[in-house]
Amino acid sequence: MTKGILYVVSGPSGVGKSSIIKEAMKRLKGFTFSISYTTRKPRPGEVNGKDYFFVDEKTFDEMVKNNEFLEYAEVHGHKYGTSKSFIKEKINEGFSIVLDIDVQGALNVVKQMRKETVLIFIAPPSYSELKKRLLNRGTEKMEDLKRRLEDAKWELSKINEFDYLIVNEDLNESINQLISIFIAEQIKTERVTEHLGNYSFFKFEEE
C-alpha cells in the first residue's frame, strides 16, 4: 500500500489559510483534515472537534508529558498541538492529510517527517494588506493584534524553507493553486513508481 501524503499549510494569522483549505477540500476526494488541539477559546462559529479540539492548559500539558503530539508550540499566547498517533496512522493507511498550523509548527513537523511532508506557505499580497485583514476580522484585542503582526514578520522570513508559495490576493485563484499542488504531488514519478514497485509495464515489446 502506498503511504499517504501530509500536506502542511501554513502562513501568518489572518492570511486566509482556513478558507482556502476548506474550499479546496470540498472539491477533492480522499483527503482528511487534521484537527489540532488548542488552549485558546473558540471564535464565533467554531465547533469543538471540527475546527479544533479545545482543551484547557492542564489537559494540554498532560498530553505533552505523555508525548502525544507530533509537534506543539505556543503561538500568540496560546498552545497548539498535532496528534502524533492520528497523523502517522492515517499516513500509513494511505490517506492524504491536510494540516493547517503555524509556521513554527510546520518547521517542527518536517524535521520528523520530511519524506511524507509537503510544505505550503500562504502569504498576503503585502504586510499592510495583512494588517487590514486582521483589523477587519475583528476577533482579536488590540494587544493580540499587535502580537500577531509582529510574529508575521518572522513567519514571512521563513518562506524559502517551504516547498510551495501561494500569494493570497484572489481567493478563487489561491484555492485553484492549492488544489493543483495537492494533485501534482500525488502523481509525482517517485510516488507512483514506489507504489508500482517496478517499471515492467512501461517496457515496449518488440514486434
Automatic annotation (TrEMBL):
Gene Ontology cellular component annotations, sorted alphabetically: cytosol
Record-annotated Guanylate kinase-like domain positions: 4-183
EC number(s) stated in the UniProt entry for this protein: 2.7.4.8
Enzyme superclass (EC): transferase
Coiled coil: 135-162
Matches recorded under InterPro entries: GK/Ca_channel_bsu, Guanylate_kin-like_dom, Guanylate_kinase, Guanylate_kinase_CS, P-loop_NTPase
Cellular compartment(s): Cytoplasm
Pfam families associated with the record: Guanylate_kin
PROSITE patterns: GUANYLATE_KINASE_1 (PS00856), GUANYLATE_KINASE_2 (PS50052)
Gene Ontology MF term list: ATP binding; GMP kinase activity
Residue positions binding ATP: G11, P12, S13, G14, V15, G16, K17, S18
Catalytic activity: GMP + ATP = GDP + ADP
UniProt keyword terms in alphabetical order: ATP-binding, Coiled coil, Cytoplasm, Kinase, Nucleotide-binding, Transferase
Family under the similarity heading: Belongs to the guanylate kinase family.
Function recorded in the entry: Essential for recycling GMP and indirectly, cGMP.
Protein name stated in the entry: Guanylate kinase
Organism per entry: Marinitoga piezophila (strain DSM 14283 / JCM 11233 / KA3)
Origin organism lineage: Bacteria, Thermotogati, Thermotogota, Thermotogae, Petrotogales
Gene name tied to this protein: gmk
